[in-house]
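Model: Ready when you are.
Researcher: Fold this.
Model:
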Amino acid sequence: MNFLLPPQRFLVGVGVALGACMALGTLSGPSEAWAHAGYVQQFNNRYPASQTGNASCAVCHSDSNGGSPWNAYGRDLLANGGGVGENGNLTPALQAVEQLNSDAVAGNNLTEIQAGAQPGWCNPATAGCNNQFYNANGSIAGAGNPPASLTLLDDGSTTTPEPNIQVTQASVNFGKVLIGQTAFSTVTINNTGQLDLTLNVALSGPLFAIVTPPAATVPGGGSTSVTLSYTPTASGVDADTLILTSNDPDTPTLNLALAGEGVTELPPDDIAQCPTGNELVDPLPDPITKGPIQVGLKAVADGFVNPLFGLAAPGDRGRLFVVDQTGQVWAVNLATGTRSLFLDVSSRLVPLGLFGIDYDERGLLGAAFAPDYFRSGRFYTYESVPTDRPADFSTIPTGVPPDHQSVVVEWRVRNPRDPNAVVDPASARELLRVDQPQFNHNGGQLVFGPDKMLYITFGDGGGADDQGSAGDNLGHSLQGNGQDPSNLLGTIIRINPRGHNAANGQYGIPEGNPFVNAEALEDGSVGGQAGCADGFCDEIFAYGFRNPWRASFDSDRDEVFMVADVGQNEIEEINMVRAGGNYGWRIKEGTFCFDHNGANRGFVTDATFSGPPVVVSPIAQYDHDEGISITGGFVYRGEAIKPLRGRYVFGDWAPTFVDPQPGRLFYLATKELEGSGDTSQSGILEFQLPGQLNGVGIKINGFGEDANGELYVIGSPTGRLVGTEGMVLKIVPASSSDEHEEETEE
């Protein structure tokens, strides 16, 4: 930050320009400012024409106590990614809350910003104003000084004159410990301030102990540590709290959760898992930034409930077939936007809509045309159906009903060359049926590869942490389904829909599948449950997935198979999948070790996993500072946007579950990526969407690719099974023309 003034102290005040957010004071001391000036500058950049000339930090805070209390607008920003930090990226959070109404004044936030009527920057003396400004001395009546974290030097760096306690982990997990034995763990405590930190520690329960206490005084810039022990006396999960009290004015009390599990025997050595580690609070601190590529979004069709995916029939350049979660496949005319019903399987589906909000992860989840569709008329669907018959594959204990079953069905279109032809509803032929323990994590992608085989994605069976609901392990293996290739959950399978050597006789097992016993192909003893008896189902192409939500082959490079895998609590990842690969879940989430944490919430840790088994790293990943659920897309091979060719396009469903928050549209920075995450890595960039104040405007459920290689964003405003506001948006060149965008490559 540059000031053309002599060194002196600057403090947030009122009646100053938004871009500066400063008022000159006369206090002595180094040149500093009590403000998140970078945040305010981002606000100014996003709303340059707004009537917000006297905005200050009180836009988000109702008084000068910094992080508390926040006003309603600040809380909405915070909930949507606008976290504290001078270099934080506030712009997506600003965009995310524009359509919300954070106060009692009529109109949404954007309307109020444009009118200068948002209470966050009204004059406190004005009737009806429900907020206050920082005074020129950094305080308001009875409020004291702003927190040290708001101190900003005028060279852009930050300083903390007061003591500032910092612990890099939010919890300590001792893992599984034999009853009567003792495990140890050390926590490092840093003082990132300039004054001495006085420190005291205590525990709230009896099973954990302080072995070595920390230093009572930690100088500025210094650190200390406390060593803890855990000695279980009975089977079960134990919890405690390490209470740190200090003279940090902003955080006088800091609590760290402690956990451990007493067991009578340790897990077998053949169950792969990471060593015990400490929870990582922010595993990927660097934000995703906007890249140089600008695109627009053109509405093509609407009126869907919650569309999930779009696909083209081979050779059909005029239509996109859109899969709606409620059971319909619609043929959309790309020139006119009109649509016609191609197939309706809604009567076959399990009843949809949960939790009283019509949310669900079941339904019609996938579809695919056979490569020879215009000759054979074959069409395939992936459906969530009731449990009215035995499954071909099951992890459910005898006598316990599954939540539902996933079924892959082959259909026929009698005259596929007729543009008015539809699926014959009497032609259904079931290929395979899989029991699903819980409602979520179903996978559901169907895609034919360049080898003309059908690839099908399955999630880990649902619940959380690949261990059922609240750790009950119902329908989940001890090591997690993702690491148990003796069942299909957590895998991508590869089958021949025209073959018959599977156990149920309804499909074939390709001889080239990585876990096939080739000699047994002759007598038909592979596939189905029989083909899983050696611990590896012959159908499996790759495993170690949590919820592979969309997979696609690069139409220009047959060997490139891109799979997006939805994370648990922290990491979203993109994998380049090869035959026989183990992609890590539940040992790892992204590149990080994962602790499933028993009946409690799982988390990523600072531990290191060296195998066995060998697990393949993702080629790209991001954490939940950026979004909560990845949506896989396609490598762009169209002609309309030249800088995008060869780059993988994907998105995130939304930053939160709050309805108005739209998804985000990303692409990989590296073009023509090859190999796997162990040999190749790519950064992630966000598209620029000029002129679209609400960004994508919808939850990104999926993508579509037409026969020309052009891409479509598909979703709905809520991501739920309500209304008919679902839409298809084509990714098009920005109005300024993409030809002038600079191409960059990592």
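Researcher: Now this one.
Model:
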Amino acid sequence: MSSTYKRTSQQQTWDPDAMEKAIRAVRNEEMGFLKASKEFKVPRSTLKRRVKGINKEAIEIKKILGSCHPTFSMEQEEELVHHILEMEKRFYGLTLQDVRRLAYQLAERNNIEHKFSKDTQMAGKAWISAFRKRHPELTLRSPEATSLARAQGFNKVSVMKFFDLLEEVRSKTNYPSHRVFNVDESGLTTVQSKSSKILAQKGKKQVGAITTAERGVLSTVVICMTAGGSFIPPFIIFPRKRMKELQDGAPPGTGFACHSSGWMQLDIFTDWFKHFLKFAKPTEDDPALLILDGHNTHTTTLDFIVLERINHTTVLCLPPHCSHRLQPLDVSFMGPVNKYYIRAVEKYLRPGRAITVFQFSKLFGEAYSEAAQQSIAVNGFRKCGIEPIDRHVFKDHDFLAADTADVALAEPVTQQNEANKENETPEREESPSVLQDALEEILAMTPP
């Protein structure tokens, strides 16, 4: 059964209008506390607190009871809804966890008293349920199974919607090629088991197939290039708590961070964005357009959203499961840098000699310096149809696999069918979507 709040407390069973009259009578010295309490049938102790203003509750006649009252004001919730709409419009594909995390960050940033979990740093399930009821303009779509999503990911509808949005954004602001950026992160391992496993797009099947013993020490590199052929210095995340002596041999200007996992983290991505701003230097007269993978969940933090807005950067996400065809770095850069990294590793290896994390920067630096060529960057954006914009760069046969998948697109979850499923499964990580008119409205509001 759905959880519906039922009041069990016996507090404040008195009439608020009667309490207001009793307060007025006491303050006007028409009667004392005892007489007013009996006359208007209100608790004497409560009447005293409210007349004397002992605590915050005394200021208001009506006390908010229970634990389900909104944490935010309507204005603050509208701000959160605005974030969700903007991010959905840019193909962010927020999950319920993302929204709960944003709510926690909004409360913390504005010093709002809340009961959200500090351990998970997210709002609770009860909050997100009530939030959705208060804002029916937000709806949900059922998540697709991963295999089906991948099969349908590169479909003509999604790709054309991306080009619609790209043209919309670039029609408002004339971004020259050197102000159109693409960023992506990849994992590299110090162990050369098979050449195809040395460097691969994070999350791809071949990376998941590597065993712990084969993988060695894994670090993450964040690479960013422009449609004009230039490169932002890379950013390396080491699987260490300290980075002493790990930076030797890295490309000039490289940024660094450390985390025990070696993977990208929420706060580290914000650090990378500050690194990006240092070199891209976007201004009101010379803004930047940053294109990234739609699966990059690190861009869903409130800190990042605020940073991009105040630093004249428009972030545009690629549709899910389309990076192998729409992401310039994936199309033109990752292959060459993988090849050059393997070559650097083979050159370094000697009998009885192993590669450790301390040689990583130097080996990656050699590979990066060979791969970071203007022609590689320019060709990547051109092949993806991003610069120059060419929505017809992909032919009908390119969408064949998606078009022949025998699966219908997910339908929006209505309140009725959602209610029918309440007894079936606990809360799932579903991706919020918005009604078409809300999307069109937010598109019109997007700043250049």
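Researcher: Key takeaway?
Model: The first helix runs from residue 16 to 27.
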